[in-house]
Recover the amino acids of this structure.
């Protein structure tokens, strides 16, 4: 089973991924938490773009994320699923549906480019206002090119526009972490039955 955790930078999804993994393990499941972009060759190129050290247009960025994901699926995701493990994704192709859509690429094209990737059972989107997310991000990392407010507002809107996707659940991430974790657990339990 594949679960995708999503949201704008600073939404708290990495914390929620750890909490969810602990809870699933306590329930007896084998769990692996994987993150995109990866540290592979395409992922490293992407990180240079994200840090502003390398210039790439939107189409190139879409292609690089997809190439990174293709390797990730082959090397880590598909084998873990074959072993019967629960795979928790800290970002997956739904990030492309938000970020690259916000950058102007139509959703249908993003879905087509990512059609090779196994679909998640459920996508949890941790939603919060951009101002709040930026406060959190600024407190522990340097704001990079992707962490600017106007852009993030478009990204948040793109995530919220996924509301009609049958796999997507939107969670209010302004609440205390334990409350969010409880709802995440309920939604994942529902998806598992
Ligand atoms: P990272 O610093 O790893 O973000 P975070 O710690 O917030 O998850 O950088 C990932 C960035 O890449 C983030 O801004 C979202 C973006 N991204 C895309 O634009 N498309 C994608 O397909 C993926 C996976 C990430």
């Amino acid at each position: 089973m594949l679960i995708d955790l999503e949201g704008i930078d600073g939404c708290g999804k990495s914390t929620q991924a750890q909490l969810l993994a602990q809870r699933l393990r306590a329930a007896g499941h084998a769990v692996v938490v994987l993150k995109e972009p990866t540290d592979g060759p395409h992922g490293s190129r992407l990180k240079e773009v994200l840090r502003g050290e390398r210039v790439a247009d939107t189409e190139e960025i879409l292609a690089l994320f997809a190439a990174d994901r293709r390797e990730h699926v082959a090397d880590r995701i598909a084998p873990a699923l074959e072993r019967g493990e629960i795979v928790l994704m800290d970002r997956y192709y739904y990030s492309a549906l938000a970020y690259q859509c916000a950058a102007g690429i139509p959703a249908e094209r993003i879905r087509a480019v990512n059609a090779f990737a196994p679909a998640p059972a459920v996508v949890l989107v941790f939603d919060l206002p951009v101002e709040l997310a930026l406060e959190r991000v600024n407190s522990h990392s340097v704001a990079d090119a992707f962490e600017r407010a106007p852009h993030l507002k478009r990204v948040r809107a793109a995530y919220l526009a996924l509301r009609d996707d049958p796999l997507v659940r939107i969670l209010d991430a302004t609440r205390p972490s334990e409350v969010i974790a409880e709802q995440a657990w309920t939604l994942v339990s529902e998806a598992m039955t």
Remarks:
- DSSP finds eight helices and five strands in the chain.
- The chain has a mean pLDDT of 94.
